[in-house]
């Protein structure tokens, strides 16, 4: 077996719970994937001695459980100089003890080819030490950065100015406008999973600046008081809100969904024990009203029945896209027509828009036909 020219070994979703020490003899192995997410205690044990002995050329290592190992073992991970994709499990005590903090930061600085880093932490682990210890030049090739369970005081500045991030998962204890600016300035960010470990006291406003390529946004917050202004997140197609119980307020509800021009699906998730919570119901109803006939709504994984009933209202949304004279900024306008004639309505908007914006009208695009009868008329 050890003479095999094995390039990739994936034993996830198997009953294998321990790898033999002879693993080091698989000298051509580049990708090693085992179970482990920091939650399930049945992860596969990896013989770390083999890593240091002759597996330092690994490109992918998922997921290695570092809990219970001394700091010197964590520091030796830095020997994986060619690692590109790495996922580790990090314990609460390791977040607190300085020796572990320094060992992890030392290893991260050595992974100069790292493209994806996932850290599974205990709930509430403070990862602030990463920002204090890592300089702006850390892992220049990093495109995927996920910290699951751990928290940062705010969006770490070490993320700022990076032009390769495509996916970020992070939980913060505070979110300021400058933090949104840091995330919004990432030109290639496509997926953002943002945990807000606090209850907002005012609306979190997302304006039309930044997030040029964001397609998927997941926000976990007891009260997702988000306001999307005109031009916000123009490429966003999927929005997920993970909510929980909190004192209800008529003001602290998400708004501005009509400004998310590319949005096609919204998902709301919450624990079933909060199903009768006034704040949960208020958020759910506010979202339902805003997306009716505009995009699909799923609640705890099931398509919203009231959303399907809303299709009978025959909502037809048109997107009129114009580009100003210098052709650098795009503006979008939306109109919705209930139970009206499709063709005359479209023709009327086309004419009025063209008169007010001579030469700049590009197209009238029907975003969604909400009933088959209307589609047939077209």
From TrEMBL:
The keyword Transcription regulation does not apply. It comes from the Eukaryota. Residues 6-294 form the Disease resistance R13L4/SHOC-2-like LRR domain. Keywords: Repeat. Pfam families: LRR_14 (PF23598). SUPFAM superfamilies: L domain-like (SSF52058). PANTHER family: LEUCINE-RICH REPEAT-CONTAINING PROTEIN 57, OS02G0478300 PROTEIN. This is Disease resistance R13L4/SHOC-2-like LRR domain-containing protein.
């Amino acid at each position: 077996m050890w003479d095999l020219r094995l390039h990739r070994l994936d034993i996830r979703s198997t009953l294998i719970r321990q790898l033999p020490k002879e693993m080091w003899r698989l000298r051509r192995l580049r990708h090693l994937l085992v179970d482990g997410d920091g939650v399930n205690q049945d992860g596969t044990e990896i013989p770390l001695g083999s890593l240091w002995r002759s597996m330092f050329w690994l490109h992918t290592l998922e997921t290695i459980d570092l809990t219970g190992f001394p700091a010197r073992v964590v520091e030796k991970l830095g020997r994986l100089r060619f690692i590109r994709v790495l996922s580790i499990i990090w314990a609460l005590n390791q977040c607190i003890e300085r020796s572990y903090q320094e060992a992890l930061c030392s290893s991260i600085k050595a992974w100069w080819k790292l493209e994806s880093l996932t850290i599974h932490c205990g709930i509430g682990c403070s990862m602030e030490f990463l920002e204090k210890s890592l300089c702006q030049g850390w892992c220049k090739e990093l495109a995927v950065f996920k910290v699951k369970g751990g928290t940062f005081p705010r969006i770490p500045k070490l993320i700022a100015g990076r032009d390769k991030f495509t996916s970020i998962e992070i939980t913060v204890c505070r979110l300021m406008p400058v933090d949104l600016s840091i995330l919004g300035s990432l030109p290639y960010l496509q997926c953002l999973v943002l945990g807000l470990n606090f209850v907002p006291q005012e609306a979190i406003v997302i304006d039309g600046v930044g997030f040029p390529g964001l397609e998927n946004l997941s926000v976990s917050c007891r009260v997702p008081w988000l306001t999307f202004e005109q031009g916000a997140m123009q490429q966003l197609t999927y929005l997920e809100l993970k909510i929980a119980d909190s004192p209800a307020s008529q003001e602290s509800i998400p708004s501005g969904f009509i400004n998310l021009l590319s949005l096609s699906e919204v998902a709301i998730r919450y624990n079933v024990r909060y199903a009768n919570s006034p704040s949960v119901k208020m958020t759910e109803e506010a979202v339902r009203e805003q997306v009716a006939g505009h995009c699909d709504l799923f609640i705890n994984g099931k398509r919203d029945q009231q959303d399907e009933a809303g299709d009978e209202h025959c909502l037809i949304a048109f997107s009129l896209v114009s580009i100003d004279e210098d052709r650098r900024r795009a503006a979008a306008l939306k109109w919705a027509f209930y139970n009206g004639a499709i063709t005359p309505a479209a023709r009327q908007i086309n004419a009025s828009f063209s008169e007010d914006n001579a030469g700049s009208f590009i197209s009238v695009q029907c975003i969604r036909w909400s009933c088959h009868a209307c589609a047939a008329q077209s």
